[in-house]
Amino acid sequence: MTVSHRRVMALWIPDWPVHAHLAEFPDTDTDTGTGTESGTDPRADGPGAPVALLASRRVSACSAGARAAGVRVGLKEHEARFRCTDLRLLPHDPEIDARRFEPVLAALEALVPEVEAVRPGLCAVRARGPARYYGGEAEAAAALREAIAGLGFSDARVGVAEGRFAAEQAARSAADDPQVTSPSPGVRLIAAAETAAFLGPLPIARATGSDLGDVLRGLGIHTLGALAALPPSAVQDRFGRAGGVARRLAAGDDPDAGPSLVPRERPQEFGVELAFEPPVDGADPLAFACSAAAERFVADLVGAGLICTEISVQLTDDIGVRHERNWAHPKHFDGADVLNRVRWQAETLPRDADRAGAGVVHVLIAPIRTDRAAHHEPGLWSSDSDPRVHHVLSRVQSLVGHEGVVTAKLTGGRLLRDRRQWVPWGTRASETAAHRRPPDQPWPGSLPPPHPVFVFDPPVQVECVAADESSVSLSEDGDTLTAPPARLRIPTAGVDEPVETWSPPWPLRERWWAGTPPRFRLQLALQNGDAWLLLHQRGSWFAEGRYD
């Protein structure tokens, strides 16, 4: 069988970012939550459900179900919610797209060599070799699609045409489009002689960026065929290199066709696995059994000139339930750090008294984020934290547990106590609930700087009285005080001081739809020089903080 070296097979998984994020966050019900332990089908909801990914408060990708409800890429978040009230929103992380695409590439590389990863969700291979092996392009394309469908992506498509661009457009075409042959579900073939005719009716945006596409449409060029009909030299002179490349693509003369495909470099596997029979019960016995594997895991990375800043630990118990968690490190992992994460995760496994002896039968430790070790060498005037601090804190953490050593992170919120988030040492704030309340977002009613030095959690009840010893309260509209504050009394702190000056009260209203009563803030300066921040709620005054 003779197959042109320009023939390319492109495998495309529609709505790949949605697939990837549903696999990453299988149990997320809110727009910024994080996934929990696995053990459920990551595509239980399916990309056909109304799901959208957000980047900078705009839709960057959406599922077929969301598109059916009117959601489109580029819509603002509130407009997308308005069009589809049951829309499920997730934050878009391009790293998840790439990481979740690795198993797909690995499955393809088990069938055909030299796979080029064009972008997450799309890859290409030369058609000549697979066509010879499987007996034809249609048979080879069907084999590739079947392999990916076996991973759970039944909507995957394979397009075969002259050049990578035409092959991608073939994969995106419908089975009944002109010049398209579909010998089996999900497979689209374009004959070499039909390439130009197939590409001609496609919109100009398929081959151009947004800026060049807008210019061409303004000149009345709306299809690839109209662009291909222009003289090559004129397009090159008028629109530069980008216009010349777009014109070649539109004419079916793909500059990235054939031998110029760049196969990806297959990543080295650094994960380590252990199987136990009988099951290992208990965190300490499991950590002891994994000690050699943890050292080997780090040694393999060091041998490749890498360090690891985030790992995945998967523990599978004797009834097949998998408990998976990602662990981050403030610097990079060594063997003891990996072993501590295994121990801490084992301590959180659910215990069932009726089973009395259940344990772990399989352990998988795999790197999530790696970097070149040379990038983390300390400089002559290094500004990193003292390694002795890290050593001591990690040692204490190994003795008292993962959440026994914490650091404070500033997060968003309206009350002062809500802005403080305790994060376990070695854990990024993005892995906790703190990342759901970014401090740089607007928080109407929040306190502007400078902030009190002392914050009371919970707030301390106080008495704010007028000159006639009556309690100071707020007017019905909340704009004014019922009387000028004369004294501030805090019985628990022995404070009874006259008030020198005060600020107007300002409201703090949130979740009114849930019945949360309005609250008001008031700043007081006492004659002894102290300044206090008061909070009024449900008819009482509370000290939220004290200025120093």
What tags apply to this protein structure?
UmuC, DNA polymerase Y family protein, DNA/RNA_pol_sf, alpha+beta, DNA polymerase, domain 1, Dna Ligase, domain 1, Alpha-Beta Plaits, 28% helix, five-stranded mixed sheet, 548 residues, 14 helices, six-stranded antiparallel β-barrel
- CATH names the topology of the largest domain as Alpha-Beta Plaits
Residue share in helices? 25-40%
Q: What is the CATH superfamily label of the largest domain?
A: Reverse transcriptase/Diguanylate cyclase domain
Look at the structure and give the CATH class of the largest domain: Alpha Beta
* Structural class estimated from helices and strands: alpha+beta
**Helical element count?**
14
Give the domain tally. Answer: 5
- Work out the radius of gyration: 31 Å
Distance between the termini: 85 Å
CATH-scheme architecture of the largest domain: 2-Layer Sandwich
| Low-confidence runs | 28-45
Q: Quick one: how many beta strands? A: 21
Strand order of the largest sheet: 15-16-17-19-20-21
The averaged pLDDT comes out at: 83
Shape: globular
Quaternary organisation: single chain
Largest sheet, in brief, is: 6 strands, antiparallel, barrel
Proportion of β residues?
25-35%
Keywords: DNA damage
Family: Belongs to the DNA polymerase type-Y family.
Biased composition (Pro residues): 440-449
Region (Disordered): 24-47, 428-449
